[in-house]
């Protein structure tokens, strides 16, 4: 490589919250230079805003909220208004009414998503969360739970 050349590393399905990279250059004499250390942090997922919704009979029509980063790649928490929208794998919609619980996942999301959910009559508590390859119920369930919006009560007749 010549000066100014770049090397990129891509994590297709990152699972960790941070990665430590050690970078060195092999000189012409096949000896490595001293390495530089860089730590890259997963941006996390900020708690979602309440979704917009309408009720039509026994159907709740949700417009799922945009998803924003919680941190930058250096691990610093974004200040209010500085967050960047980010790509995710999907949303998790939770509805609870009395002893009934309904959970639906909406995967492969791009752009604004509207979801129709049929429920029985009653008062339903609704929360919406988001997940990616790192922040999800399998690998980092605590961070996944932190993505869920504040519960809202929806009356379905």
Q: How would you portray this structure in words?
A:
This protein is mainly β and 157 residues long. It is built from one helix and nine strands, in the order E-E-E-E-E-E-E-E-H-E. It has a domain at 52-156: Immunoglobulins (Immunoglobulin-like, Sandwich). A four-stranded antiparallel β-sheet has the order 6-5-8-9. The protein has a three-stranded antiparallel β-sheet with strand order 3-4-7, with no helix packed on it. Strands 1-2 form a two-stranded antiparallel ribbon. The longest helix is centred in the last third of the chain and has 6 residues, at 141-146. The protein is elongated, with a radius of gyration of 21 Å. The protein starts with 17 loop residues before the first strand and ends with a strand.
Annotation field: number of helices:
1
The percentage of residues in β strands lies in 35-45%
CATH superfamily of one domain: Immunoglobulins
Intertermini distance: 68 Å
Main sheet attributes: strand count, strand direction, barrel closure: 4 strands, antiparallel
Proportion of helical residues: under 10%
Calculate Rg over CA atoms: 21 Å
- Report the strand count: 9
SSE order, one letter for each helix or strand: EEEEEEEEHE
Name the poorly predicted regions. Answer: none
| Mean pLDDT across residues | 87
Question: Strands of the biggest beta sheet: in what spatial order?
Answer: 6-5-8-9
Instruction: Predict the CATH topology of one domain.
Output: Immunoglobulin-like
Shape: elongated
Write the layout of secondary structure elements.
Layout: E1 18-23, E2 36-41, E3 52-56, E4 59-63, E5 90-97, E6 100-107, E7 114-118, E8 122-131, H1 141-146, E9 152-156
Antiparallel strand pairs: 1-2, 3-4, 4-7, 5-6, 5-8, 8-9
């Amino acid at each position: 490589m010549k000066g100014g050349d770049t090397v990129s590393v891509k994590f297709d399905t990152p699972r960790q919250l941070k990665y430590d990279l050690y970078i060195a250059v092999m000189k012409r004499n096949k000896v490595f230079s001293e390495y530089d250390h860089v730590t890259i942090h997963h941006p996390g997922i900020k708690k979602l805003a309440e979704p917009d919704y309408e009720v039509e009979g026994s159907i709740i029509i949700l417009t799922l909220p945009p998803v924003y980063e919680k941190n930058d790649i250096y691990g610093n928490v974004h200040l209010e208004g500085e967050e960047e929208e980010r790509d995710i794998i999907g949303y998790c919609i939770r509805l609870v009414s009395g002893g009934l619980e309904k959970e639906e996942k909406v995967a492969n999301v791009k752009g604004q998503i509207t979801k129709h959910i049929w429920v029985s009559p009653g008062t339903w508590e609704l929360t919406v969360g988001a997940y990616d390859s790192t922040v999800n119920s399998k690998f980092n369930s605590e961070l996944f739970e932190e993505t869920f919006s504040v519960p809202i009560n929806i009356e379905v007749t």
